Structure formats: structure tokens, C-alpha cells
Request: fold
Amino acid sequence: MKEKIYEPGECYDYQLTLDKLLRTPLTYAPDREIVYRDRYRYTYRDLIERIHRLAAGLSAIGINKGDKVCIFDYDSPRYLETYFAVPMMGAVMHMMNWRSSPEQIMYMINHARDKAVIIHEDFLPLLDEIWDQLETVETIVVISDGGSKYHTALPIDIDYEEMLADASLPHRFPHIDEDDTATMFYTTGTTGLPKGVHFTHKQLMLHVMSETVMTGSYHSIGRFHSNDVYMPITPMFHVHAWGFPYVATMLGTKQVYPGKYEPEMLLKLIEKEGVTFSHCVPTVLRMILSHPRAEDVHLQGWKVVVGGSSFPVALAKQALDKGIEAYDGYGMSETCPLLCIGNLKPHMMEWDNDRKAEIVTKTGLPLPLVDLRIIDSAGNFLPHDGRRTGELVVRAPWATRSYYDEPEMTKELWRDGWLHTKDIALIDNEGYVTVTDRLKDVIKTGGEWVSSLDLENCATQHEAVAEAAAVGIPDEKWGERPVIMATLKEAYRGKIESDEIRNFLRSFVDQGVIPRYGMPDRVILVDAIPKTSIGKYNKIEIRRIMEESCI
Amino acid sequence: MKEKIYEPGECYDYQLTLDKLLRTPLTYAPDREIVYRDRYRYTYRDLIERIHRLAAGLSAIGINKGDKVCIFDYDSPRYLETYFAVPMMGAVMHMMNWRSSPEQIMYMINHARDKAVIIHEDFLPLLDEIWDQLETVETIVVISDGGSKYHTALPIDIDYEEMLADASLPHRFPHIDEDDTATMFYTTGTTGLPKGVHFTHKQLMLHVMSETVMTGSYHSIGRFHSNDVYMPITPMFHVHAWGFPYVATMLGTKQVYPGKYEPEMLLKLIEKEGVTFSHCVPTVLRMILSHPRAEDVHLQGWKVVVGGSSFPVALAKQALDKGIEAYDGYGMSETCPLLCIGNLKPHMMEWDNDRKAEIVTKTGLPLPLVDLRIIDSAGNFLPHDGRRTGELVVRAPWATRSYYDEPEMTKELWRDGWLHTKDIALIDNEGYVTVTDRLKDVIKTGGEWVSSLDLENCATQHEAVAEAAAVGIPDEKWGERPVIMATLKEAYRGKIESDEIRNFLRSFVDQGVIPRYGMPDRVILVDAIPKTSIGKYNKIEIRRIMEESCI
Reply:
């Protein structure tokens, strides 16, 4: 690493940069393995050499400090290599959500002004489609999983592995400041153009440290420690895979990368490699638990952070009953992401799974260094009484400083010096945050607010219901009225009528869980609920369908 | 807290300041207790209110941002309150080593330009002695443990508890930058004037985070977590009690402060309050283990970081055999202090206690973010082969940036941009650092170096030896020759001759553990070995005595 020359008596100006994370695994566990599917495995020593080779290779093809490098890949050790090599060069790692539409991808690459693209061969058709509209990309590096060679008209410059093999070592990294940008990506909502968020080295480092403390040093279930075997089941393009690849690397855990998500392969890897710590969205956890092979795989003690959308109590109960230590993780693209986890407090450790499931599915307790508040529509702080709901606002060292090149949207995000999450939440007197809804999804009926998440949570407690999405549709008298779109579990399809679900919901009204005015007017059963590219309910589309079906 | 008013669109400029540590205990464990001896106990809610009261009280007596406040106290919850309140005001907490001589104390208070002194009544005679030579102190606040009132001619301004009781809340703290100085103290060696070191909020915060990760997230013995009961047995004036009061507070553990160290009281508190995590110097651990009451107290599972001077293997073995999870902690005044701990690696967890004792007594493995190297006398990096020894140099985010107001000594400390520890060490290929000696204590004989620590470690393995100090005394032919001063355990006093210890040492020469030229010329037995104010061997004095006894 290129070092500043120090004058006598000048203290070293220590910078919190990502390269610092690579020191502990080299002393702790240099021979621990990093595994890719059933394809290859290598050690931390190899990882570090490959990071240096990747940086040398990218330098050789003209990537310099400040340049943006766009990555399209499944969860893989190569992706992990870019997590370090690109920022360590002073370049910016742009993680691409390859589930986006070609138009969105084109917009994001042009808006970020990416200079190079590192892309897994499976995604070449996506790039092909928009290639002639890209304005800044000079170089394409292709990752191949071997097997048959890819066919494309794109001007491929170099193969990833060839680039590493040809790299000349030692590579001298430039001096990086902790406030230099390390990573960026776009958040693609259901409306409007994608918005770019970006994070500095210092932000990522503080996020790593706090996340490690939160998952490692509090007495709860699901502790993440250096002897775990880590496997992400969240795309690595998705908000740094929640930061856990950095945590795992600092701790020197064995790491397993599953490539393209296939339930069979995931279960095989959990079993064969002895995976003990993962993170995923509720849908993926449900998919794994309901897979026919799940019965044969030893899942007892598997620790899973569940995030991305709200964690249904029924699913948590199912996981806990299987001996899986599952708990909620909450955050957003704008916050690096982690803000809260559904940690149990010591006095809850002996509770039964029904009561534990109520806690671990909460949005959770804030991480060290995170300041979370709820505010009313006038911006006043609301009490943490477990009753009043308001918009959740946050201050954390790792909150994005702006939307990239979007001053107007940044103003809205950072109104009054607080990052506005656009989530509606309550905070109880134990400090647990519960997000009750998205600001835009909350159903406004007769001057009252009804939480769409509450309705969904009640609906999925019916044994036949697989998924449920609640939306408000326009109503002349009440402003909006709640309705529900649901899917049934396979065994129940065609055997259950929507009325039964409504009757089931009425029991929650009788118990006072759902307010009387919150009782959905209609439940419709469908084969599949429309989702966004990252697997969340597409409420705009759902609302459209529900309105149409009403006519 | 006084807050900057933010314009729309301006992101919050998050500062890593110590107040941020008080958030997690308030959500996690607001009713957990903080205990002082058998005197009083209060909750985290009370702690936080008292921190606000202390700041308000200090403001009322004229303490402002940038002022220095000197503290003389035993380990107590009040000391903990100053750990937060003083830096949160933007003032600097000057921790006073009350074991120093009155002349040193006078020098330190004048050199630091302390504006106020907060002092436990037991130390008033010390202050009395130098009062008319103090140049800057305007206010004296006295801490009383109750009982009989203190008698002094000093112009006492206010009683600590009265000041808190009279404080008007809410107190508005000023805006603090993370690079503002939070704490300072002096390191008093055996020669020369005391040197001041100082630490910013950011440095302390990064030290806390890394220390928490190192003791909480690596799979080893001695994990520190939120359900522990913490009791320091290192003076809180001594390098922030190694940072652990800050860690304990962030984690919301129950905290027990023992006041003046009395073995009986320490054992009583361990038993009664259920203490599970502590830190101390080897002498204190030995004192506790050899106390007659130690047999009755349940010490199984007690976790103890042992530092301050080298941790003898025999003592570690004794602790491990009692089921105590003891391991070395290494650092220095200039480094906040923690740099390494003697963590076991996973494959060592099943070893027997003899082998474990060899590892946990090593200087240890570096904390995350710490870069440690060994250099030869020309400043070249030496290989980590477990054989070559050189001076240990360090880069860490929490290394002091200078000796306070001492540019020449700072130059020596930070030569070539590395902090020079003046410790001689080797690093093995597992990454374990072993300090073999102090640069100034290493015995230079016939052109070779002999480690005084190695000799001491061998000598204390004799069952009769309690403590042993090795020094080099001048020799015309060889430059220096090693000699040893030792004390015997009570049961052996008068029953063992020094020749038996020499014969015992000769067996280490035969095994090749001590080089032939390292065999001490003489061993003398004494009743007590001279020590410095913080309990380390006073080698200057020992050398003088050994030389004289030679004539």
C-alpha cells in the first residue's frame, strides 16, 4: 500500500478505510475457507491476494481514483473481492440491481457515469439490450462460471479470471481518505426514477463495528461470532448485503456464497458446509422452510436475520419451533442499511416461542450509535408509549449524506436535520420500535389511520393463507377503504373461499386488534401477488387490480 | 442537548461523541444497577440523570468548554459520572494518579492547567500539601463517602452530592466535535517528568467499539456481553480503566465499583453481586487467589483481563485451574490503552490448561483496526517468524496524537509515523505478539540481548517464588550481567535458599529456554520488591539495590 512519508514527530493520520478490515482474518484464520456453491473454495490468504490482483487488473485497464465501477453478479466470492478492491483503489463500487428493468439499468449506469462494468455472463443479455444507449462505459469485464462460453455482440474487454491471472503484484494502492466515497447504488421504488445513495469508507466502517457489537455482544438469540459459518441469502447488490460480508470478513468466519438462489442448492450448502448464520427476506425463509427437503436438513441452531419487509409472526413462530434463531433486521437503502434488530432482552430468553415470536418480529431495538424518534405531521417528537404512531426519523453515522446529484430530493430526505424514513412506527416503553406501515401505504379511512401491515399480519395468521397484501382503495364516503389481496398455501387452493378469510379477520375486530373501521371490505384470492424487483409487494399495481375488480 | 438548527436538505453532521454511548443502556436495561461497595446502588436512569446534574453543577461553578477538570477518586459510580459528564460538556477529564508523589501531582495539575479538582476526601491531605503551589485551580469539589466529616484547611467550594442536588435541570450541553479532546492524564515513569497524553471523543469511541468486538465477537474464552456483571479492579485513573467502563455502559451491564481495593471487599462483592467480568494487574489477581476467603467464593466462570505488566504463566495456570477465564490484555498509556488480548483461537479451545496458559499469557492478538509491527534498530520491518525480536511499533485510531505540550518527546514517540512502544517483541506465524522486554529493561550481555521477562517467568515457575524481577547490572567484561531479585511465598519464607532458585533456573538453560549467557549471576531473596506507583517493578531502584549488594 502506498504510504504517506511521515516527518519525525508527525502522528499517523489514521483513516477508517475498508482495507483495515482485512487485518484480523489474516491473524485469526488465514486458512479458513470462502466457498462458492459446489464450484470452488479458497482461503482468506487467497482472498487478500485476489483483492490485490483485482485492483492491479482494474488499474491496468484504466480505473483510477474516483471512477465508478458497476457490478452485476450473484452472491459470490468475486463480488466479495469487489467489495474491497474497488473502494481500496479509491474507486466507487456501484452495486447493480439486476432485477431492475433494462430502462432503469440504463438510467442508473448513465446517471452514475460508470466507467467500467464487471458482469456475470448470465446478465449479458440485459447489457446487450441497452449497450448503444450507455454514455460512459469504456470497459466490460466478464465473470464466467465456466461451462459453455457466452455468446454476445458486446465488446467484451477481458475475462475476470484472466485479468486476475495477468495482474502484476505487488499492487500499490493510493492513499484513501475515510471520507472518500466507497460504494453507491440506486433505490428503485415503484414510482419515479431510481435515486442514488452513496457511502464513505468511514460510514461503512462504523456500520460494520456497530452491527458486529449489536449481533455479537448483547445477550439474545442469534449471536454472530467468529466461529460461525456465514452464508448470505440476500443479494449482494442489495445495500451491501446488509453489511454482513464485511462483518464476516473482519471476524474471519468461514463464508459460503450460494450464487444464483435455488432452494435445493441453498439447503445443500447449509448442510454440507455447516452454515450457521444467514440473512434473507421473509419470502426466502418461507421458501426454504416449505421446501420438501427442509425436513431432512438439520436447521436447528441456524441463525437468520430476516429483513427487507415485515417479518410475519406466524413465520417467525414456525422458524423458532424448528430451532431456528430468527429475528428481524430493519433498515433501508438510505441507511447502509441496518438500524434495528429484533433482539430479545434477557428476561425474554425463557419465554415460549409464541411470546418470543412477538418480539423477534418487531422492527426491534436500535443499534449502538443510532438515534431513532417518531414525529407527528408537524415535526414534533411523540412519546415512546407503544401507542402513538408517527413517522420514524433517524440520525446515524452511516445515513447517506444525500441522494446522488438530486438536491431537491435530498432536501425532502433530510428535512430539519433528520433522515425521514417514510415509515410509520411506534416505540414502546421497552424501546422496541414497531413499523406499522409505510407512510404511503397507510390506509386513511374516515379520518383514521389503519395499518396495512397489521391487516396483513392478521390475515397470514389464518392457516390457509400464504401471503396477504392490504391496500386502501378510493371511497367517496370514507376517503379510502381497506381491501386485501391474498394467496393460499398449495394444500388449500380451491378449498377455501375468501369469505372464510374475512370471517377470520372479523375475530380480530372482536378482540380489538383491528379497529372496527379497519375491517377490510373485501378479500380477493389470487394465484400470485404483484411484487417489485426486490420482492416487496407492488402496492400500486395491487391497488390498480383491486380497484378494477371492484367495478 | 443544545442542537444545531438544520436547514432543509442539510444532512445531520453526526459526531462520534461519548454521549452516544448512553442510548443503548436506556433502551436495553434502564433499571439495571450500578453499585458502589456495600454503600449505595442506583439504576442507569439515575446514572443518566446524575450525569446531567453533574454537568449542570460544574457549569454553575464556572466550568466551560475546553476547561480541564482533575479527578481524584477510587473506582466509583461518581468517577463513572465524570467519565461522561466532563467530556460531554466539552471540558477535559484529567484523571489523576493519586499514587504519585505530591511533587508529581503538583507538576501535573500545573502543567495541565486544571481549573477545578473533584477529589475524594481521602486524598485531601495530598492536595493540602501542595495547595499553595497550584497555579490554576479555582474550585475544589469534595466527594465524601459519608461518615465523619473531613478536616482540612483547603478552601473547599462544594460537596459533590450537594452540587448534584442543587443542579437545575434540564442541562443544555454545548455542541461537541468528535475531534475535541475528551480526556487526558500523565504517564509517570521511573525517570523524568510525567508526560501528558490526551484522547478525543472519536478516539475513545473507536476504542470502545473495537474493544467490544474483540472481547465479544471472537470465539474464545472470557467473552464480555450485556448480561455480565462488570467490576473493574484497575484504578479508573489508569488509562480509562482500560476503556471497560465505557464498554459496560454501552452494553448496559450491571456495574459494581469496589472503591478502595480491599481483598475482603472485592471477594464479598464478587460473591454478593455476582461479578462475572473484571480486569486487574497480575499482582491483584494473585492477591485475590491467595486470600484465605478465595476458597469459599465461587470464582468458576469469572472472566478477567490481566494487564499492566506481563502475566506469568504459573499464575494463569492457577487461575484457569480454578475455572477462571483469565487472559492477557496489552496496551499502554499512549494507546488509550488496548492493543492486544490473549485470545485463544478456536482450535485451542479444547487444549489442556497447561497449553492454554501459554497462549493466554502472550501479549496476544491485535484488536480490529490495530496495525502492529516489529522493527530492527534501523527501522526495518522484521518477519513474523516467532524468533526475531524488535521494537514494537503501532498504528491505531486511538493512539495519542502527541505528548501534551512536549514537541520533542512527541517527535521521538512518532518517529517515521509509527508510535514507538519501547517494548521489545516477537510476532509468531499465528499472529500472536509476545513482548519479551522493555527496550530499557532488556539485558545486554556480550553483544546479545537477554529478556528480563523471560528470566522472571522462569523464576516464578518455582513453587516457592512469589515474585521475581530481573535486571542487568554493569559488568566490565560483558557490558551487563543478569541478576534476579525475588520474594518467596509465605509458606516458604526462611525455608528456601537463593541457590535453590539458581539451580532451578539452570534447568531452563539445560532445556534451551534461557540462553547460556542469560543465566543470572546471582539471585537474592528480599521481603518486598520495589514498585512504582502503579505497581510495576521499579527497575531503577532494583538495579541500584542489586549493584550495592554486589559490593
Notes: Chain B touches chain A through 63 residues (CB under 8 Å).
